[in-house]
Amino acid sequence: MSETTIEPPLLAPSSVSRPALMARLDAASKLRLVLVAAPAGSGKTTLLTQWFRNRRQRRTVAWLTLDGPVPSPQALATRLLASVAAAGVQPPSATGADGAVQTLQTLLAQRSGDLLIMIDDVQHAQDAPCLALLDTLLASCAPGVHWVLSGRCMPGLNLPTWRLRDQLEVLDGGDLAFDIGQVTQLGRKLVPEPLSREHAERLLEITQGWTAGVKLGLLVHGDHGDFDGGHVDIAAYLQREVLNEQDAALQEFLVSTSVVEVMTAELCDALLGRDGSQAVLEKLERSQLFVTAQDSHGLAFRYHPLFLGFLRSRLAADPARQRALHARASHWHAAQLRFAEALTHAFQSGEPAWCAELMERAAARWQQSGDIAEVVRWCERLPPQQLLARPALGVTFTTCLVLCRRFDEARAMLRHLAADPATHEGAPFGFHLRTLQQILQAMLGEHAALGVEMPAADESDGDAQLRGLQLVNRAYALFCAHRFDAAWRLAMRAREILQPITPYGEGYASSVLAMVERAKGDFGSAARRVETLWAGTRNGPRNAAWANAATALAVLRYETNRLAEARALCEELLPLVEAGGTYETLVAAARTLARVHAAEREPEAAMRLLDYLHGVLGGSHERRFAAQVGFDKVRLWLAQGEPVRARDCAAEFGIADATEWQAMRPYDEAWERRGMAQAALLSHAQRHDEARGVLQVLRGSAEAAGHVLRLHAIEAALASNLWETGARDEALQCLHTSLLRARGHAPSRSWFDDNPRFHEVLVAALQVPTMRRLMPEHVLRVFGAALGRSEPRPAHAVDALTARELEVLALLAQGLSNQQISARAQISMTTVKWHVKNIFAKLGVGTRVGALVRARALRLV
Question: How many angstroms separate the Cα of 285 from the Cα of each of 31, 178, 288, 293, 390?
Fold first, then answer.
């Protein structure tokens, strides 16, 4: 029989002060029952020892530590009587072991003063008779008797009764977890050199604040590069204190299920080849065996990161078993159509044929849904021969490469497919290869390909989805070549074909239609189309289809001066398009956000985004996008009063003088944007006549091409130029022409941002009745008296968090690591880090703890 300890252990010299928990225990100890249930190494005993030693001078406190299994209720009662007696409360008369239960019950029922009974390691009294005794004592003891039970599991007591009576307080592993301040405090005691903030945060993320993990992590501070659950010290501790305490069947369950990130009963049954996993998972959670439920229904569970790493290190000792478990996990996830998880396990199963077969299934679905970046990412992990051995997969991969604008790789893949006997011209995939070649030529803007008229759609002519994608990509290429009517017709045909097949393809066609309509000046139709597109995708998965719709809406929101909405959309968009978007969506999202930053007097943030785009586009062939970025950078430097830096920036984009804008040429957007930058430089240098000459050339070119959208921008710049030189009537006439053409959908936000004096022109225009009538009331309301010039925000103002940022913030408040947030929210680690960075910036904090304090003050969590 184990000895009974009736005094708490001595405090470790490295103990950390926990004033908040002490205060919580102070308040809770007035209740009937306090439970402290947390895994081994969570600091339960240390916490209670600190509290006991600080409080026993003011209260009568009995301490009992159960050092091993309690054989019977009588033995438990005897030990409790001894601890109560040691606290100065003597039983009415001496009693033997057989009468200990009755004596203890009578003593506690008749107790008139305050008495606090603390039982540590209560997991050793979990058999039914001992639990029945504790339930009886809790129910029958006097009101002044209070209990604190501490152990590695939730005891099987009648807890709902005490919870309903508001007489129960529970402290679990999350409550006992260290925060960043406590990690740093402990580091000062255990680590000779100062602990950096970065290392403390990393340690907190790895350990989730688990006390033993934090201490061991600090003690191996010099070896922190590979500190995880497989580290020799952590592994030895978990092996001795946790795994060895379980029976063989449970050990097998723990090690086998560690192969997956998130466990469900069905998945665990599939891994183990037997039923009954739900009961085991619930038992593990109740037992505080480093398992937490991931939902309120207890259907999905996850191991603590360090425990998971430890279990996986044990599984890695048996590679054959490990591969077999990965294969089972892969097949189970595939049956649930959860292809990303299925592929993750497939590539670790050592079954290349299964990887290729699964990839072929996944690629077809992902292409339809718009997850084209996923297709590319996973296909790149397959050996080239596997792609060539499955022509359908090779075609899908090549299609997604084209859609991602990775043209060189797509061209190389086409060559390999064409050279393979299975996909030569006479084979069934000949149509696919020809169509992909035509798409590639169209996307590269090869004029010969654009000049060939497309044959009418024929349902018998190959794959309808590929044919629709061919049409929409050709439409986009025609849009870039400023052949708007032809582009609109092709995009409409593509939308009709793709609508019943692929939401991504339909959304792509709708986006092209909206771009064409904006370019032609049909702003009302374009706005309605964008709103409809967004309504159909806003609640869908964050993939390419969602990104297309969100990008179009962000641009619309910016141009209509709804800057907060545009900002929120762009901030949610950027992590997605950075991870696998196209140049079109990336440039549109980043430029729009940069313009919002500039409009809200945040030029440094705007310039950082433009510099980032400049770097991304530096090695590409995307002249149009590079010119857009160049114009924005020049304008921003000028707005900050930095003409020298603006000229240097222009030189980087090949803008030296106005020579190439002396005569009109066929419209080219890159040429036009660069010309706008040159005109801005000339105007800033007070060379207004030269600037006006450039703008007039640009206006003629855009007008001849029918590019109404850019014509508006040029005329706004021209009106501002005329106004600044004193030609006020000509400036108003220029603006009047633009307003007539816009049919109630002007001015746009960019008119103000691109031209510092434009607001003066508009103020004067509002005094002319015929011009004021051209601007409906809703336009005047949008821009208001300040005409779009927003006031500087107070330093304490908090930007609106996006829905996804609020979701991430809520998960942060649960104490989850970035990796856990990634799995829970189904977003990549890169996206999680982006959202966390934005949350910190918007709340004006630099740490997770600061974010949570600020968020609670604002009632965001």
Answer: 25, 21, 5, 7, 45
Name the nearest CA neighbour of 398 among 382, 381, 416, 383: 416
Q: Which helix (H) or strand (E) holds 796?
A: none
What's the CA gap between 682 and 689, in Å, rounded? 9
Are 401 and 431 in contact by the 8 Å Cβ rule? The answer is no
Q: What is the DSSP string of 212-236?
A: HHHHHHHHTGGGGGG-STTSHHHHH
Whole-number Å distance between alpha carbons of 214 and 531: 50
For residue 338, is it left (φ>0), alpha (ψ between -120 and 50) or beta?
beta
Q: What is the 3-state secondary structure (H, E, C) of 695-713?
A: HHHHHHHHHHHCCHHHHHH
- Any idea which residue has 């004067």 for tokens? 764
Residue-wise pLDDT for 79-123, tens only, equals 999 999 998 888 776 555 568 899 999 999 998 888 999 999 999
CB 254 within 8 A of CB 266: no
Nearest by Cα to 478 from 436, 520, 504, 442: 442
| 443-460 per-position pLDDT tens digit | 776 655 555 455 444 444
Q: Which residue reads 């001595």 in tokens?
A: 10
The DSSP line for 289-319 is SSEEESSTTS-EEEE-HHHHHHHHHHHTT-H
Where is 53: in which H helix or E strand? helix 44-55
DSSP state of 8: P
Structure tokens at 307: 């425990």
* DSSP assignment of 354-382: HHHHHHHHHHHHHHHHT-HHHHHHHHTTS
Run of H or E including 608:
helix 603-617
Q: How many other CB atoms are found less than 10 A from the CB of residue 194? A: 10
**Residues contacting residue 319 through CB under 8 Å, at least 6 positions apart:** none
343's enclosing H/E stretch is helix 339-346
Mean pLDDT calculated for residue range 582-595: 90
Residue 120: its H or E element: strand 115-120
Task: Map residue 622 onto helix, strand or coil.
Answer: coil
Average pLDDT over residues 73-81: 93
- Residue 126 backbone phi and psi in degrees, to 5: -105, 5
Q: Which strand ranges, in their side-by-side order, compose the sheet holding 33-37?
A: 4-5, 61-66, 115-120, 145-151, 33-37, 168-171
Could you please report the per-residue DSSP string of 140-173?
Answer: HS-TTEEEEEEESS---S-HHHHHHTT-EEEE-H
What is the percentage of the chain residues whose pLDDT exceeds 70?
89
* Centroid of chain to Cα 314: 31
| Residues constituting the chain | 861
Cβ(148)–Cβ(816) under 8 Å?
Answer: no
Q: What is the pLDDT of residue 221?
A: 62
